[in-house]
Design brief:
With about 220 residues, the protein is α+β, with helices and mostly antiparallel strands. It is built from seven helices and seven strands. The protein has helices at about 5-10, 75-80, 90-100, 130-145, 150-170, 170-195, 205-210; strands spanning about 15-25, 30, 35, 45, 60, 70, 105-115. Strand 3 and strand 4 (about 45) form a beta hairpin. The protein is globular and about 50 Å long. The two termini are about 25 Å apart.
């Protein structure tokens, strides 16, 4: 009750382009109190699995809002961002939020807008389908939105990480990562065109200095 009214009220200021709900798991723990991105370029849900306590009751400007229950200001999206339908699953909300930040808008976390969310219901956390889309789409997001250094490091490190996954975790997961990488490479020309096509009023490094946070171990965005 009151979810939508709280979410829409947060969109009042002109600089706010997106308002993110507090997502809670069916057992009452936090699913997402807004999104963060690690210095390695991995998206995470802030507070995942933690108790729903006062730590997550404060409104805040955040890196990105989870698309499970996100309100968007249409005019700002039309000016400063695009939802690329090739994402399919995962990271499309990180990509859009990051674009909006580069265009000079902000994304707000609204703790009074509470939604119960079935986490990873579409694919299952840790499944091969989940691996494919999160790995491919993470690289796509970084290619479009991140500084050149961060994007290049992530792309260059990916094959080495895939070899490590094959040797020490799961050959099946490694094969899915290879397919994700090949799909990303085919998508790359379009991603580079989009990198230079949307308006930017904020430097990429400024966004990263403000919002990139150490990897907390929270689950990847989903």
């Amino acid at each position: 009750p009151g979810w939508l009214a709280a979410l829409l009220e947060a969109l009042g200021p002109a600089e706010v382009a997106a308002a993110a709900s507090k997502l809670v798991l069916p057992d009452g723990r936090i699913n997402s109190a807004g999104g963060v991105v690690s210095p390695a370029g991995y998206g995470h849900d802030r507070g995942f699995g933690q108790p729903d306590d006062v730590r997550y009751d404060t409104p805040a400007e955040i890196m990105d809002g989870c698309g499970a229950a996100l309100a968007l200001e249409t005019a700002a999206v039309l000016e400063g961002g695009v939802i690329d339908l090739r994402f399919g699953l995962y990271y499309e909300d990180v990509d859009l939020s990051w674009q909006l930040g580069l265009a000079g808008y902000s994304v707000r976390y609204v703790p009074g807008a509470v939604v119960v969310h079935q986490h990873s219901a579409s694919t299952g956390a840790g499944s091969l389908l989940h691996t494919y889309y999160t790995e491919r789409n993470r690289l796509a997001t970084l290619t479009v939105c991140a500084s050149a250094g961060l994007a290049l490091r992530a792309v260059a490190r990916y094959p080495l990480t895939t070899v490590s996954v094959a040797l020490f975790e799961s050959p099946a997961k490694a094969r899915r990562r290879v397919l994700a990488y090949l799909s990303y490479l085919g998508w790359l020309p379009a991603l580079l065109r989009r990198r230079h096509s949307f308006p930017r009023r904020v430097a990429r490094r400024d966004i990263e200095q403000r919002f990139l946070t150490p990897d907390t171990g929270d689950r990847s965005v989903s």
